[in-house]
Amino acid sequence: MFLNQAAFAPRSRPAIRQSLAGVLLGMALSASVHAQTPSPSALALQDALRMAQDRSQQLVAQDALATASREMAVAAGQRPDPALRAGISNLPVNGEDRFSLTRDFMTMRSVGVMQEFTRSDKLSARSARYEKEAEVADAGRSLALTKLQAGAAAAWLDRYFQERAREVLSQQRNEARLQVEAADAAYRGGKGNQADVFTARSAVAQIEDRIVQADRQIATATTALARWVGAPATSPLGPLPKIDQIPLTPRDLESRLAHHPQIQLMLKQEETAQAEAEMARANKKSDWTVEVMYSQRGSAYSNMLSVNLSVPLQWDQKNRQDRELSAKLAMVERMRAEREEATRSHVSEAMAMLQEWQSDRDRLGRYDNSLIPLAAERTRAAIAAYRGGAAPLYGVLEARRNEIEVRLERIRLEMDAGRLWAQLNYLIPEGHVATATQP
């Protein structure tokens, strides 16, 4: 929008007021932020989430941990390797037969194999314990993915709304500059006063200071987004997704939060503790070790075959094996109690976030249906009063400033609702719940 030179020529006060009022009214009607068509290289929210997942090393670490546990599960299910034994028994060290391997009938050169026969229930318990550790790693990966998605979405939304706030401030600055030009033209034409010029210039300076602050906030938000997506964080952003839908409803919140990754992780940890208790229970039964040995003596004597069987004597089970089992069962109870407490805490926190999100959505409705239209009407009324000579330029500036503040507050409120949406939308693993729409 441009003002031609004729607009600054000396005219009557009503003509100047009518010209300025027309400019201000036109700018007031176009103050709302229009959605721009995203460029082909625009960074959409789903693209940001995909990039964050591809870049994440935490997911790689959890996958490696799960793989390691599953490999150990196979190894733990095998019996111990047999032991090869070789030696010399009853070797003379003095007399005529000293250090002879063949002359003394008691001297033997022996070779044997010893094998521990671990009970099958022990092997199964050991293998199951590592399988549970693998499931813990899988649950940890789901939790890491949930945090990654929520964090990346919040960073994307922060930058989106910071840029929207700057657009509003830029529009306000453009209007304020036109007001400076009009007030200066009126003053030079002898139809206005110098106070209006200074007031308009002060408004521009204040807006420019706020734009500098907005640029800093955008840079901070871009840095936070780069933590998740890397270099594409500086790309233009795509359109805002529908943040008026969340995957939770108050009536089934508790049952659906049972699928929260944190709760699933604690459940798998509890199952791991139970598997360790089963290992302790299996250890109450001893394993047998069998050894077969062949001993060679001198040519004048017979060779020998020996078979040995060893069994540990658990002579104090009540103070050893039973105590170990009791300790493991106590850990299971501890895990169960912590999981139930964490479930209650998650339900309470999620309910509070859900109520706050719903309140923000209601307030956004009031801004759209009442507060912003009223602020726009006030601006139009101030322009009409100025055009009729019933109010000074300061009244127009004040009304316009109030309208922009209301629009900025609406953006801040939507930003808060967007952050809550990011936490709630990625609270539950995808596929476990249906989508609920804000009425």
Explain what you see.
The protein has a four-stranded antiparallel β-sheet, with no helix packed on it. The chain has a two-stranded antiparallel ribbon with strand order 3-6. It has one domain (5-32, 39-81, 119-285, 316-437): Outer membrane efflux proteins (OEP) (Up-down Bundle). The two termini are 40 Å apart. It has 439 residues and is α+β, with helices and mostly antiparallel strands. The chain is elongated, with a radius of gyration of 40 Å. It has helices spanning 13-29, 45-55, 57-76, 120-188, 194-229, 253-257, 261-282, 321-387, 393-425; strands at residues 83-89, 108-117, 245-246, 288-296, 304-310, 436-437. The chain is 64% helix and 8% strand. It has nine helices and six strands. A hairpin with a 7-residue loop joins strand 4 (288-296) and strand 5 (304-310). The model is unreliable at 1-38 and 431-439 (pLDDT under 50).
Summarize the structure.
With 439 residues, the protein is α+β, with helices and mostly antiparallel strands. Helix content is 64%, strand content 8%. It has helices at residues 13-29, 45-55, 57-76, 120-188, 194-229, 253-257, 261-282, 321-387, 393-425; strands at 83-89, 108-117, 245-246, 288-296, 304-310, 436-437.
What order do the helices and strands come in, and which of them pair?
Elements (H helix, E strand, L loop, with lengths): L12 H17 L15 H11 L1 H20 L6 E7 L18 E10 L2 H69 L5 H36 L15 E2 L6 H5 L3 H22 L5 E9 L7 E7 L10 H67 L5 H33 L10 E2 L2
